[in-house]
Amino acid sequence: MSIFALSVALSVVSADDLPTKLNFDRYKGMLDHSPFAVASAVVAPAATPNFAKDLYVANAARSQDGDMVTIASSADKEFKKYLTTKIPVDGYAISNIEWSDKVGETKVTISKDGQYATLTFNQAELSKPLPNRPAPGVAPMPQPPAQPGVQRPGVQNPPMGAPTPHVRGTIPRNPQPQPPAQVRTPPPASVEE
Hints:
By secondary structure, the chain is α+β, with helices and mostly antiparallel strands. It has helices at 2-17, 28-32, 123-127, and strands spanning 55-61, 68-73, 80-84, 93-98, 107-112, 115-119.
């Protein structure tokens, strides 16, 4: 019993030693004037639509009269502008051209209505085969020169396939000597008189 009385006495003393839960209002002053507070976000002005979002360089050339660039749109297939360094076309003007010796690496900076954009070649368009041209790796059939009275191959005469290449047979490493060929001589013909 004495153990039971001792445990009850300790539990009463332990309950009084625990601190009471503090109210959250105690931290309100720190929250209102915190040095680590997030600054209020500045509202950005409405973004103007990018005039060159879908544009790419379709062609670029140097000329004595000035550099020329063709720009096209990947969204509108009928959109093409032929620009020169001399005069703007429909508000589009060439600001700068960074020429490169590598195919498809030339960069063109254009402007329209005070906005600037740097355009490059569309790599997806460069990798497509040209229309009415064979795919890479396929050699076109040579056409013979037109001669009077000779019918050219066409629908009636289908073109022949590519000839099979000549392949040499395998040469053995250690060839076996071949026995000499035996030559048979015919028996002498008898002549009857």
